[in-house]
Amino acid sequence: MRLVLLIGGLVLAAAPTLAADLPAVFAKRSVQVGALVSAADVELRPLPEHRAAGVATSLDAVVGQEVRRNLYVDRPVMLEDIGVPTVIRRNSLVTLAYASGGLELTALGRAIDSAGLDEPIRVVNIDSRVTVVGRVTGPGMVRVGGSAARGAP
């Protein structure tokens, strides 16, 4: 009898405690890649803590973002499924800007990747055919050079 009580006590001690539910963002309807998420597309619902890794927990973090992977009805929105809205699309022509001290240079380039505002992007200089990495500063504008690498505008 003591052995049964001892084993029963060990089982109860090893049982996991019930995890709390956390707020999570769920899709209310399907949203396709490239669309912007609106408040009508998502809602907050409880989600068990053990399933919440990588899930968006705030409507503010999701609304206005661009869908990078399709969102499906009644499924949680993962942070990797969304991102900043795309400002420069792959293969589009962009203006490369370089500034150092009083020197300012611009050149025409072609985007290798798509990117949003203040994201890094690879661009091929049309004239030299050299690939450079810069930071998107606006529609069709990429800053290259020292300040772009540090994240400054």
What does this structure look like?
- With 153 residues, the protein is mainly beta.
- It has two helices and eleven strands.
- A hairpin with a 2-residue loop joins strand 6 and strand 7.
| N-to-C series of helices and strands | HEEEEEEEEEEEH
Q: What is the quaternary state of this protein?
A: single chain
Find the CATH superfamily of the largest domain.
Antifreeze-like/N-acetylneuraminic acid synthase C-terminal domain
Q: How far do the termini sit from each other?
A: 74 Å
The rounded Rg comes to: 24 Å
CATH topology of the largest domain: Type Iii Antifreeze Protein Isoform Hplc 12
How much helicity do the residues have?
Answer: 10-25%
Features:
153 residues; mainly beta; Type Iii Antifreeze Protein Isoform Hplc 12; SH3 type barrels; 2 domains; five-stranded mixed beta barrel; two-stranded antiparallel sheet; 2 helices; elongated; disordered C terminus
Question: Quick recap of the structure?
Answer:
Helix content is 12%, strand content 38%. With 153 residues, it is mostly beta strands.
How does the SSE layout of this entry go?
Blueprint: H1 2-14, E1 21-27, E2 42-48, E3 66-67, E4 82-83, E5 86-88, E6 93-100, E7 103-111, E8 115-116, E9 120-125, E10 131-138, E11 141-144, H2 146-150
Parallel strand pairs: 6-11
Antiparallel strand pairs: 1-2, 3-4, 5-8, 6-7, 7-9, 9-10, 10-11
